[in-house]
Design goal:
The chain is an alpha/beta fold and 528 residues long. Helix content is 50%, strand content 8%. Strands 3-4-5-6-7-8-9-10 form an eight-stranded parallel beta barrel, surrounded by five helices. Strands 1-2 form a two-stranded antiparallel sheet. The radius of gyration is 30 Å and the shape is elongated.
Protein backbone atom coordinates (compact mmCIF):
# COMPACT_ATOMS: atom_id res chain seq x y z
CA UNK A 1 0.00 0.00 0.00
CA UNK A 2 1.17 3.55 -0.67
CA UNK A 3 2.05 6.10 2.02
CA UNK A 4 1.57 9.84 2.02
CA UNK A 5 4.96 10.35 0.37
CA UNK A 6 4.17 8.22 -2.70
CA UNK A 7 3.33 10.42 -5.74
CA UNK A 8 -0.01 9.78 -7.44
CA UNK A 9 0.30 7.31 -10.30
CA UNK A 10 3.60 5.88 -9.07
CA UNK A 11 4.39 2.18 -9.58
CA UNK A 12 4.17 -0.01 -6.51
CA UNK A 13 5.27 -3.59 -6.13
CA UNK A 14 1.80 -5.20 -6.00
CA UNK A 15 0.63 -3.62 -9.26
CA UNK A 16 1.74 -4.56 -12.79
CA UNK A 17 3.76 -1.78 -14.36
CA UNK A 18 6.80 -1.24 -16.57
CA UNK A 19 8.17 -4.53 -17.79
CA UNK A 20 5.46 -6.38 -15.86
CA UNK A 21 2.84 -4.71 -18.07
CA UNK A 22 4.59 -5.68 -21.31
CA UNK A 23 3.26 -9.30 -21.50
CA UNK A 24 -0.26 -8.01 -20.80
CA UNK A 25 0.12 -5.41 -23.53
CA UNK A 26 1.31 -8.07 -25.97
CA UNK A 27 -1.75 -10.20 -25.14
CA UNK A 28 -4.04 -7.20 -25.71
CA UNK A 29 -2.38 -6.32 -29.03
CA UNK A 30 -2.51 -9.93 -30.28
CA UNK A 31 -6.23 -10.20 -29.59
CA UNK A 32 -6.75 -6.81 -31.23
CA UNK A 33 -4.84 -7.94 -34.33
CA UNK A 34 -7.07 -11.04 -34.60
CA UNK A 35 -10.30 -9.03 -34.25
CA UNK A 36 -9.18 -6.31 -36.66
CA UNK A 37 -8.12 -8.71 -39.41
CA UNK A 38 -11.29 -10.79 -39.09
CA UNK A 39 -13.35 -7.64 -39.57
CA UNK A 40 -11.30 -6.31 -42.50
CA UNK A 41 -11.32 -9.70 -44.25
CA UNK A 42 -15.11 -9.79 -44.06
CA UNK A 43 -15.38 -6.19 -45.23
CA UNK A 44 -13.17 -6.90 -48.26
CA UNK A 45 -15.44 -9.73 -49.41
CA UNK A 46 -17.96 -7.10 -50.46
CA UNK A 47 -21.06 -9.24 -50.07
CA UNK A 48 -20.10 -11.18 -46.94
CA UNK A 49 -23.02 -12.24 -44.78
CA UNK A 50 -23.32 -14.07 -41.48
CA UNK A 51 -26.57 -15.66 -42.66
CA UNK A 52 -24.89 -18.96 -43.54
CA UNK A 53 -23.12 -19.11 -40.18
CA UNK A 54 -26.33 -18.34 -38.29
CA UNK A 55 -28.33 -20.81 -40.38
CA UNK A 56 -26.01 -23.66 -39.40
CA UNK A 57 -26.02 -22.89 -35.66
CA UNK A 58 -26.61 -25.73 -33.19
CA UNK A 59 -27.25 -25.96 -29.49
CA UNK A 60 -29.86 -24.53 -27.10
CA UNK A 61 -29.92 -21.11 -28.79
CA UNK A 62 -30.06 -22.47 -32.37
CA UNK A 63 -33.66 -21.34 -32.87
CA UNK A 64 -32.77 -17.73 -32.20
CA UNK A 65 -29.76 -17.83 -34.52
CA UNK A 66 -31.78 -19.49 -37.31
CA UNK A 67 -34.51 -16.85 -36.96
CA UNK A 68 -31.95 -14.07 -37.06
CA UNK A 69 -30.19 -15.53 -40.12
CA UNK A 70 -33.48 -15.79 -42.02
CA UNK A 71 -34.60 -12.24 -41.15
CA UNK A 72 -33.93 -10.18 -44.29
CA UNK A 73 -34.61 -6.91 -42.44
CA UNK A 74 -32.18 -7.47 -39.59
CA UNK A 75 -29.38 -9.31 -41.43
CA UNK A 76 -27.86 -6.19 -43.09
CA UNK A 77 -27.55 -4.62 -39.63
CA UNK A 78 -26.18 -7.82 -38.14
CA UNK A 79 -23.53 -7.96 -40.87
CA UNK A 80 -22.55 -4.32 -40.36
CA UNK A 81 -22.38 -4.66 -36.58
CA UNK A 82 -20.32 -7.83 -36.92
CA UNK A 83 -17.79 -6.42 -39.39
CA UNK A 84 -17.39 -2.97 -37.89
CA UNK A 85 -17.61 -4.31 -34.34
CA UNK A 86 -14.62 -6.54 -35.04
CA UNK A 87 -12.72 -3.69 -36.73
CA UNK A 88 -13.33 -1.08 -34.01
CA UNK A 89 -12.77 -3.48 -31.12
CA UNK A 90 -9.57 -4.72 -32.74
CA UNK A 91 -8.24 -1.22 -33.41
CA UNK A 92 -9.01 -0.06 -29.85
CA UNK A 93 -7.29 -3.10 -28.33
CA UNK A 94 -4.20 -2.67 -30.51
CA UNK A 95 -3.92 1.02 -29.65
CA UNK A 96 -4.89 0.59 -25.99
CA UNK A 97 -7.79 3.05 -26.38
CA UNK A 98 -10.88 2.68 -24.12
CA UNK A 99 -9.47 -0.77 -23.48
CA UNK A 100 -11.95 -1.94 -20.87
CA UNK A 101 -14.98 -0.95 -22.93
CA UNK A 102 -13.49 -2.65 -26.01
CA UNK A 103 -12.78 -5.76 -23.92
CA UNK A 104 -16.40 -5.97 -22.77
CA UNK A 105 -17.66 -5.60 -26.36
CA UNK A 106 -15.18 -8.25 -27.51
CA UNK A 107 -16.31 -10.65 -24.79
CA UNK A 108 -19.93 -10.15 -25.85
CA UNK A 109 -19.11 -11.00 -29.50
CA UNK A 110 -17.10 -14.06 -28.53
CA UNK A 111 -19.90 -15.28 -26.29
CA UNK A 112 -22.32 -15.03 -29.23
CA UNK A 113 -19.89 -17.01 -31.41
CA UNK A 114 -19.42 -19.60 -28.68
CA UNK A 115 -23.14 -20.12 -28.18
CA UNK A 116 -23.77 -20.50 -31.93
CA UNK A 117 -21.61 -23.64 -32.04
CA UNK A 118 -21.13 -24.75 -28.42
CA UNK A 119 -18.68 -27.65 -28.19
CA UNK A 120 -20.52 -29.06 -25.18
CA UNK A 121 -23.65 -29.59 -27.30
CA UNK A 122 -22.58 -31.09 -30.61
CA UNK A 123 -18.79 -31.12 -31.09
CA UNK A 124 -19.02 -33.14 -34.33
CA UNK A 125 -21.32 -30.68 -36.11
CA UNK A 126 -20.52 -27.26 -37.50
CA UNK A 127 -17.36 -25.32 -38.27
CA UNK A 128 -14.83 -26.87 -35.90
CA UNK A 129 -11.07 -26.85 -36.41
CA UNK A 130 -10.15 -29.59 -33.98
CA UNK A 131 -11.48 -31.67 -31.13
CA UNK A 132 -13.02 -29.77 -28.23
CA UNK A 133 -14.59 -30.60 -24.88
CA UNK A 134 -16.33 -27.48 -23.54
CA UNK A 135 -13.29 -25.29 -24.28
CA UNK A 136 -12.64 -23.98 -27.81
CA UNK A 137 -10.69 -21.03 -29.19
CA UNK A 138 -13.62 -18.62 -28.72
CA UNK A 139 -13.82 -19.41 -25.01
CA UNK A 140 -10.04 -19.15 -24.59
CA UNK A 141 -9.99 -15.72 -26.25
CA UNK A 142 -12.97 -14.63 -24.14
CA UNK A 143 -11.10 -15.58 -20.95
CA UNK A 144 -8.03 -13.74 -22.24
CA UNK A 145 -10.15 -10.61 -22.66
CA UNK A 146 -11.19 -10.90 -19.02
CA UNK A 147 -7.49 -10.64 -18.13
CA UNK A 148 -7.16 -7.62 -20.46
CA UNK A 149 -10.18 -6.02 -18.77
CA UNK A 150 -8.66 -6.55 -15.32
CA UNK A 151 -5.16 -5.43 -16.37
CA UNK A 152 -5.46 -3.19 -19.46
CA UNK A 153 -1.71 -2.37 -19.53
CA UNK A 154 -2.42 1.34 -19.81
CA UNK A 155 1.27 2.21 -19.79
CA UNK A 156 1.54 0.81 -23.34
CA UNK A 157 -1.51 2.48 -24.85
CA UNK A 158 -3.44 5.67 -25.45
CA UNK A 159 -5.31 5.12 -22.19
CA UNK A 160 -2.04 5.82 -20.35
CA UNK A 161 -1.53 9.10 -22.22
CA UNK A 162 -5.12 10.19 -21.58
CA UNK A 163 -4.80 9.27 -17.91
CA UNK A 164 -1.59 11.29 -17.71
CA UNK A 165 -3.19 14.34 -19.33
CA UNK A 166 -6.18 14.09 -17.02
CA UNK A 167 -3.84 13.65 -14.03
CA UNK A 168 -1.86 16.75 -14.98
CA UNK A 169 -5.03 18.81 -15.22
CA UNK A 170 -6.33 17.54 -11.90
CA UNK A 171 -2.93 18.05 -10.25
CA UNK A 172 -2.68 21.65 -11.37
CA UNK A 173 -6.27 22.33 -10.35
CA UNK A 174 -5.69 20.83 -6.91
CA UNK A 175 -2.49 22.80 -6.50
CA UNK A 176 -4.21 26.04 -7.46
CA UNK A 177 -7.03 25.44 -4.96
CA UNK A 178 -4.66 24.85 -2.06
CA UNK A 179 -4.27 28.47 -1.01
CA UNK A 180 -2.34 27.44 2.03
CA UNK A 181 0.17 25.43 0.01
CA UNK A 182 3.63 26.82 -0.37
CA UNK A 183 4.95 27.34 -3.95
CA UNK A 184 7.31 24.43 -3.43
CA UNK A 185 4.46 22.07 -2.41
CA UNK A 186 2.21 23.14 -5.32
CA UNK A 187 5.04 22.64 -7.79
CA UNK A 188 5.72 19.16 -6.41
CA UNK A 189 2.09 18.07 -6.82
CA UNK A 190 1.88 19.34 -10.41
CA UNK A 191 5.27 17.96 -11.38
CA UNK A 192 4.36 14.46 -10.14
CA UNK A 193 1.61 14.29 -12.77
CA UNK A 194 3.60 15.59 -15.73
CA UNK A 195 3.78 13.19 -18.71
CA UNK A 196 7.37 12.26 -19.34
CA UNK A 197 8.65 11.64 -22.85
CA UNK A 198 9.14 7.98 -21.96
CA UNK A 199 5.49 7.61 -20.93
CA UNK A 200 4.28 9.21 -24.14
CA UNK A 201 6.44 6.93 -26.27
CA UNK A 202 5.21 3.88 -24.35
CA UNK A 203 1.61 5.00 -24.81
CA UNK A 204 2.14 5.25 -28.57
CA UNK A 205 3.55 1.70 -28.79
CA UNK A 206 0.44 0.44 -30.56
CA UNK A 207 0.95 2.71 -33.59
CA UNK A 208 3.96 0.85 -35.12
CA UNK A 209 2.12 -2.44 -34.51
CA UNK A 210 -0.89 -1.04 -36.34
CA UNK A 211 1.44 0.03 -39.15
CA UNK A 212 2.86 -3.49 -39.34
CA UNK A 213 -0.69 -4.81 -39.50
CA UNK A 214 -1.50 -2.55 -42.45
CA UNK A 215 1.62 -3.65 -44.34
CA UNK A 216 0.87 -7.34 -43.65
CA UNK A 217 -2.73 -6.95 -44.80
CA UNK A 218 -1.65 -5.18 -47.99
CA UNK A 219 0.93 -7.87 -48.70
CA UNK A 220 -1.70 -10.60 -48.32
CA UNK A 221 -4.43 -8.94 -50.36
CA UNK A 222 -2.29 -7.01 -52.82
CA UNK A 223 -1.59 -3.36 -53.42
CA UNK A 224 -3.98 -1.44 -55.64
CA UNK A 225 -1.48 -0.04 -58.12
CA UNK A 226 -2.35 2.71 -60.60
CA UNK A 227 -1.90 0.19 -63.42
CA UNK A 228 -4.37 -2.18 -61.76
CA UNK A 229 -6.92 0.61 -61.32
CA UNK A 230 -6.55 1.63 -64.97
CA UNK A 231 -7.00 -1.97 -66.10
CA UNK A 232 -10.09 -2.36 -63.91
CA UNK A 233 -11.56 0.91 -65.24
CA UNK A 234 -10.88 -0.16 -68.82
CA UNK A 235 -12.49 -3.54 -68.27
CA UNK A 236 -15.53 -1.97 -66.62
CA UNK A 237 -16.00 0.56 -69.42
CA UNK A 238 -15.61 -2.02 -72.16
CA UNK A 239 -12.69 -0.15 -73.69
CA UNK A 240 -10.42 -3.13 -73.21
CA UNK A 241 -11.26 -6.78 -72.80
CA UNK A 242 -8.92 -9.60 -71.86
CA UNK A 243 -8.79 -11.90 -74.85
CA UNK A 244 -6.20 -14.49 -73.90
CA UNK A 245 -4.11 -13.59 -76.96
CA UNK A 246 -1.19 -11.73 -75.38
CA UNK A 247 1.78 -13.91 -74.53
CA UNK A 248 5.41 -13.67 -73.45
CA UNK A 249 6.76 -16.35 -75.78
CA UNK A 250 8.78 -15.54 -78.87
CA UNK A 251 6.50 -17.68 -81.00
CA UNK A 252 3.03 -16.13 -81.37
CA UNK A 253 0.26 -18.71 -81.26
CA UNK A 254 -3.01 -18.14 -83.07
CA UNK A 255 -5.60 -18.19 -80.33
CA UNK A 256 -9.30 -17.53 -80.80
CA UNK A 257 -10.38 -14.03 -79.75
CA UNK A 258 -13.59 -13.41 -77.78
CA UNK A 259 -14.95 -11.61 -80.85
CA UNK A 260 -15.03 -14.99 -82.61
CA UNK A 261 -17.41 -16.54 -80.10
CA UNK A 262 -20.24 -18.19 -82.06
CA UNK A 263 -22.79 -18.62 -79.26
CA UNK A 264 -23.06 -18.92 -75.52
CA UNK A 265 -23.89 -22.29 -73.94
CA UNK A 266 -27.45 -22.85 -72.71
CA UNK A 267 -28.24 -22.90 -69.01
CA UNK A 268 -30.15 -25.32 -66.81
CA UNK A 269 -31.09 -25.47 -63.14
CA UNK A 270 -30.09 -27.60 -60.19
CA UNK A 271 -32.93 -26.72 -57.82
CA UNK A 272 -32.93 -22.90 -58.02
CA UNK A 273 -29.32 -22.60 -59.13
CA UNK A 274 -28.97 -21.73 -62.82
CA UNK A 275 -25.75 -23.00 -64.38
CA UNK A 276 -24.28 -23.01 -67.87
CA UNK A 277 -24.05 -26.48 -69.44
CA UNK A 278 -20.28 -25.95 -69.69
CA UNK A 279 -18.65 -25.20 -66.32
CA UNK A 280 -15.11 -24.03 -65.69
CA UNK A 281 -12.96 -26.61 -63.88
CA UNK A 282 -10.72 -25.22 -61.16
CA UNK A 283 -7.84 -27.69 -61.10
CA UNK A 284 -5.65 -25.71 -63.49
CA UNK A 285 -6.11 -22.56 -61.42
CA UNK A 286 -5.55 -24.35 -58.13
CA UNK A 287 -2.47 -26.14 -59.44
CA UNK A 288 -3.73 -29.74 -59.54
CA UNK A 289 -2.68 -30.47 -63.10
CA UNK A 290 -2.74 -34.32 -63.00
CA UNK A 291 0.24 -34.21 -65.34
CA UNK A 292 1.22 -37.88 -65.05
CA UNK A 293 5.03 -38.06 -64.95
CA UNK A 294 5.61 -34.39 -65.88
CA UNK A 295 6.60 -33.24 -62.42
CA UNK A 296 7.08 -29.56 -63.28
CA UNK A 297 3.56 -28.91 -64.61
CA UNK A 298 1.82 -28.33 -61.26
CA UNK A 299 4.30 -25.55 -60.40
CA UNK A 300 4.03 -24.16 -63.91
CA UNK A 301 0.26 -23.73 -63.82
CA UNK A 302 0.49 -22.13 -60.37
CA UNK A 303 3.09 -19.67 -61.64
CA UNK A 304 0.94 -18.86 -64.67
CA UNK A 305 -2.18 -18.21 -62.65
CA UNK A 306 -1.41 -15.06 -60.73
CA UNK A 307 -4.37 -13.03 -59.48
CA UNK A 308 -4.66 -10.88 -62.60
CA UNK A 309 -4.51 -13.93 -64.90
CA UNK A 310 -7.19 -15.70 -62.86
CA UNK A 311 -9.41 -12.62 -63.04
CA UNK A 312 -8.92 -12.44 -66.82
CA UNK A 313 -9.77 -16.14 -67.13
CA UNK A 314 -12.99 -15.63 -65.17
CA UNK A 315 -13.91 -12.56 -67.21
CA UNK A 316 -13.36 -14.32 -70.52
CA UNK A 317 -15.44 -17.25 -69.29
CA UNK A 318 -18.28 -14.95 -68.27
CA UNK A 319 -18.14 -13.14 -71.61
CA UNK A 320 -18.52 -16.55 -73.24
CA UNK A 321 -21.51 -17.49 -71.11
CA UNK A 322 -19.69 -19.85 -68.70
CA UNK A 323 -21.10 -18.71 -65.36
CA UNK A 324 -19.65 -21.11 -62.78
CA UNK A 325 -16.40 -22.69 -61.62
CA UNK A 326 -15.92 -25.87 -59.61
CA UNK A 327 -12.96 -25.61 -57.28
CA UNK A 328 -11.52 -26.11 -53.81
CA UNK A 329 -12.07 -23.92 -50.70
CA UNK A 330 -8.38 -22.98 -50.92
CA UNK A 331 -9.49 -20.51 -53.62
CA UNK A 332 -12.10 -18.84 -51.38
CA UNK A 333 -9.93 -15.73 -51.02
CA UNK A 334 -9.50 -15.51 -54.80
CA UNK A 335 -13.26 -15.75 -55.35
CA UNK A 336 -13.92 -13.05 -52.75
CA UNK A 337 -11.26 -10.81 -54.27
CA UNK A 338 -12.69 -11.30 -57.77
CA UNK A 339 -16.20 -10.34 -56.73
CA UNK A 340 -14.89 -7.33 -54.81
CA UNK A 341 -12.44 -5.94 -57.36
CA UNK A 342 -14.47 -6.56 -60.54
CA UNK A 343 -18.09 -6.57 -61.56
CA UNK A 344 -17.87 -10.34 -62.17
CA UNK A 345 -20.63 -12.73 -61.11
CA UNK A 346 -18.83 -16.06 -61.54
CA UNK A 347 -20.58 -18.66 -59.37
CA UNK A 348 -18.51 -20.82 -57.07
CA UNK A 349 -19.25 -24.53 -56.63
CA UNK A 350 -17.08 -25.89 -53.81
CA UNK A 351 -15.78 -29.44 -53.54
CA UNK A 352 -15.33 -28.80 -49.78
CA UNK A 353 -12.02 -30.67 -49.86
CA UNK A 354 -9.82 -30.36 -46.79
CA UNK A 355 -8.91 -31.99 -43.51
CA UNK A 356 -12.33 -31.24 -42.01
CA UNK A 357 -15.04 -31.32 -44.66
CA UNK A 358 -17.66 -29.76 -42.38
CA UNK A 359 -15.34 -26.87 -41.67
CA UNK A 360 -14.76 -26.48 -45.42
CA UNK A 361 -18.52 -26.44 -46.04
CA UNK A 362 -18.88 -23.56 -43.61
CA UNK A 363 -15.91 -21.70 -45.09
CA UNK A 364 -17.26 -22.15 -48.62
CA UNK A 365 -20.76 -20.96 -47.76
CA UNK A 366 -19.40 -17.99 -45.79
CA UNK A 367 -17.40 -17.02 -48.88
CA UNK A 368 -20.48 -17.23 -51.10
CA UNK A 369 -20.49 -20.72 -52.61
CA UNK A 370 -23.58 -21.32 -54.77
CA UNK A 371 -23.42 -25.10 -54.21
CA UNK A 372 -21.28 -27.61 -52.31
CA UNK A 373 -20.56 -31.30 -52.68
CA UNK A 374 -18.68 -34.10 -50.97
CA UNK A 375 -15.20 -34.12 -52.47
CA UNK A 376 -14.56 -37.04 -54.82
CA UNK A 377 -11.36 -38.32 -53.21
CA UNK A 378 -12.81 -38.16 -49.70
CA UNK A 379 -16.08 -39.69 -50.91
CA UNK A 380 -14.27 -42.66 -52.45
CA UNK A 381 -12.51 -43.30 -49.14
CA UNK A 382 -15.74 -43.13 -47.14
CA UNK A 383 -17.51 -45.43 -49.57
CA UNK A 384 -14.74 -48.04 -49.36
CA UNK A 385 -15.15 -48.11 -45.58
CA UNK A 386 -18.96 -48.15 -45.77
CA UNK A 387 -19.18 -44.84 -43.87
CA UNK A 388 -22.30 -43.60 -45.61
CA UNK A 389 -23.52 -41.88 -42.44
CA UNK A 390 -20.78 -39.30 -43.07
CA UNK A 391 -22.26 -38.53 -46.49
CA UNK A 392 -25.67 -37.98 -44.85
CA UNK A 393 -24.21 -35.64 -42.21
CA UNK A 394 -22.43 -33.47 -44.77
CA UNK A 395 -25.47 -33.36 -47.07
CA UNK A 396 -27.63 -32.23 -44.14
CA UNK A 397 -25.09 -29.58 -43.17
CA UNK A 398 -24.91 -28.20 -46.73
CA UNK A 399 -28.69 -28.11 -47.02
CA UNK A 400 -28.97 -26.28 -43.70
CA UNK A 401 -27.32 -23.36 -45.52
CA UNK A 402 -29.98 -23.48 -48.28
CA UNK A 403 -27.60 -24.35 -51.10
CA UNK A 404 -27.70 -27.43 -53.38
CA UNK A 405 -25.83 -30.41 -51.92
CA UNK A 406 -24.02 -32.93 -54.09
CA UNK A 407 -21.94 -36.10 -53.93
CA UNK A 408 -18.80 -36.53 -56.00
CA UNK A 409 -16.77 -39.60 -56.80
CA UNK A 410 -14.07 -40.93 -59.07
CA UNK A 411 -15.16 -44.52 -58.46
CA UNK A 412 -18.51 -45.82 -59.69
CA UNK A 413 -18.75 -47.93 -56.53
CA UNK A 414 -19.01 -44.67 -54.58
CA UNK A 415 -22.14 -43.63 -56.45
CA UNK A 416 -23.58 -47.14 -56.29
CA UNK A 417 -22.98 -47.37 -52.55
CA UNK A 418 -24.65 -44.01 -51.90
CA UNK A 419 -27.69 -45.03 -53.96
CA UNK A 420 -27.95 -48.34 -52.11
CA UNK A 421 -27.71 -46.46 -48.80
CA UNK A 422 -30.74 -44.38 -49.83
CA UNK A 423 -28.85 -41.11 -50.21
CA UNK A 424 -30.41 -38.56 -52.55
CA UNK A 425 -28.16 -35.58 -53.27
CA UNK A 426 -29.34 -32.62 -55.31
CA UNK A 427 -26.71 -33.48 -57.94
CA UNK A 428 -23.96 -35.96 -58.69
CA UNK A 429 -20.35 -35.30 -59.61
CA UNK A 430 -18.89 -38.29 -61.47
CA UNK A 431 -15.81 -38.65 -63.65
CA UNK A 432 -16.39 -39.65 -67.27
CA UNK A 433 -13.96 -40.05 -70.14
CA UNK A 434 -12.93 -42.62 -72.70
CA UNK A 435 -9.90 -44.75 -71.98
CA UNK A 436 -8.52 -45.07 -75.51
CA UNK A 437 -5.68 -42.57 -75.11
CA UNK A 438 -2.16 -44.00 -75.13
CA UNK A 439 -1.24 -43.21 -71.50
CA UNK A 440 -4.38 -44.82 -70.03
CA UNK A 441 -2.68 -47.75 -68.36
CA UNK A 442 -3.87 -49.66 -65.31
CA UNK A 443 -0.88 -48.53 -63.23
CA UNK A 444 -2.81 -46.33 -60.82
CA UNK A 445 0.15 -44.59 -59.21
CA UNK A 446 0.87 -42.82 -62.48
CA UNK A 447 -2.18 -40.60 -62.00
CA UNK A 448 -3.32 -41.13 -65.57
CA UNK A 449 -6.87 -42.52 -65.51
CA UNK A 450 -9.90 -41.32 -63.57
CA UNK A 451 -12.82 -43.29 -64.99
CA UNK A 452 -11.81 -46.91 -65.31
CA UNK A 453 -15.20 -48.22 -66.43
CA UNK A 454 -16.90 -45.52 -68.55
CA UNK A 455 -19.45 -47.84 -70.19
CA UNK A 456 -20.65 -49.16 -66.83
CA UNK A 457 -20.76 -45.59 -65.51
CA UNK A 458 -22.95 -44.47 -68.40
CA UNK A 459 -25.32 -47.41 -67.91
CA UNK A 460 -25.70 -46.82 -64.16
CA UNK A 461 -26.05 -43.03 -64.32
CA UNK A 462 -28.80 -43.36 -66.94
CA UNK A 463 -31.26 -44.49 -64.26
CA UNK A 464 -30.53 -41.74 -61.72
CA UNK A 465 -33.04 -38.91 -61.46
CA UNK A 466 -30.69 -36.25 -60.13
CA UNK A 467 -28.64 -33.95 -62.42
CA UNK A 468 -25.14 -35.14 -63.25
CA UNK A 469 -22.07 -32.94 -63.63
CA UNK A 470 -19.38 -34.92 -65.47
CA UNK A 471 -15.78 -34.00 -64.67
CA UNK A 472 -12.34 -35.13 -65.84
CA UNK A 473 -14.04 -35.32 -69.23
CA UNK A 474 -10.82 -34.63 -71.14
CA UNK A 475 -8.79 -37.01 -68.94
CA UNK A 476 -6.66 -34.08 -67.73
CA UNK A 477 -5.75 -32.98 -71.25
CA UNK A 478 -5.36 -36.40 -72.91
CA UNK A 479 -8.49 -36.07 -75.05
CA UNK A 480 -9.44 -33.36 -77.52
CA UNK A 481 -12.27 -31.10 -76.26
CA UNK A 482 -14.78 -31.79 -79.03
CA UNK A 483 -14.39 -35.56 -78.67
CA UNK A 484 -14.67 -35.32 -74.89
CA UNK A 485 -17.72 -33.03 -74.94
CA UNK A 486 -19.48 -35.20 -77.51
CA UNK A 487 -18.92 -38.33 -75.44
CA UNK A 488 -19.99 -36.73 -72.14
CA UNK A 489 -23.21 -35.14 -73.40
CA UNK A 490 -24.23 -38.18 -75.44
CA UNK A 491 -23.53 -40.41 -72.43
CA UNK A 492 -26.05 -38.56 -70.29
CA UNK A 493 -24.15 -35.79 -68.51
CA UNK A 494 -26.30 -32.73 -67.85
CA UNK A 495 -23.30 -30.47 -67.33
CA UNK A 496 -19.63 -30.79 -68.26
CA UNK A 497 -16.82 -29.37 -66.13
CA UNK A 498 -13.75 -28.57 -68.22
CA UNK A 499 -10.43 -27.21 -67.07
CA UNK A 500 -9.51 -24.40 -69.48
CA UNK A 501 -6.72 -21.86 -69.73
CA UNK A 502 -7.77 -18.34 -70.67
CA UNK A 503 -6.63 -18.84 -74.28
CA UNK A 504 -8.72 -22.03 -74.63
CA UNK A 505 -12.08 -20.82 -73.41
CA UNK A 506 -13.48 -19.27 -76.60
CA UNK A 507 -12.52 -22.25 -78.73
CA UNK A 508 -13.82 -24.76 -76.18
CA UNK A 509 -17.15 -22.96 -75.86
CA UNK A 510 -17.51 -22.92 -79.65
CA UNK A 511 -16.77 -26.66 -79.74
CA UNK A 512 -19.27 -27.36 -76.95
CA UNK A 513 -21.93 -25.37 -78.79
CA UNK A 514 -21.17 -27.29 -81.97
CA UNK A 515 -21.73 -30.55 -80.07
CA UNK A 516 -24.90 -29.35 -78.32
CA UNK A 517 -26.28 -28.07 -81.59
CA UNK A 518 -25.76 -31.39 -83.34
CA UNK A 519 -28.03 -34.42 -83.40
CA UNK A 520 -26.95 -35.90 -80.07
CA UNK A 521 -27.37 -39.66 -79.72
CA UNK A 522 -28.40 -39.32 -76.09
CA UNK A 523 -30.31 -42.03 -74.22
CA UNK A 524 -30.64 -40.39 -70.80
CA UNK A 525 -33.22 -37.60 -70.54
CA UNK A 526 -31.95 -34.21 -69.44
CA UNK A 527 -32.31 -34.05 -65.65
CA UNK A 528 -31.67 -30.32 -65.37
Amino acid sequence: MTDSKTPAGACVSNKPCGLRELPLALLRVAIGWHFLYEGIAKLQMGDWSAAGYLGGAVGPAAGFYHWLGANETLMPWVNLLNMWGLILIGACLMLGLVTRFASVCGMALLLLYYMAFPPFFAPAVGPVEGHYLFVNKNLVELLALIVVFAYPARLFGFDGILAGVLGMWRGKTTAAKKTDATPTQAEAVATSMVLSRRKVLAGLAGIPVLGAFVLAALKKHGYESVEHEQLADALASGASKPDGVSGATVHRFEWVDVKKLKAKPPTAKIKDLELSRLILGGNLIGGWAHARDLIYVDKLVKAYHNEQKIFETFQIAEQCGVNAIITNPSLCDIMSSYWKKTDGKMKFISDCGGRDMKEMVKKSVDTGAAACYVHGGVADGWAKKGEFDKFAEVLDLIRSFNVPAGIGGHMLDTVKGCVEAGLKPDFWMKTLHKTGYWSATETRERDNIWCENPEETVAFMENLEEPWIAFKTMAAGALRPKEAFQYAFESGADFVAAGMYDFQIVEDVNLAMEVLGSDLKRQREWRA
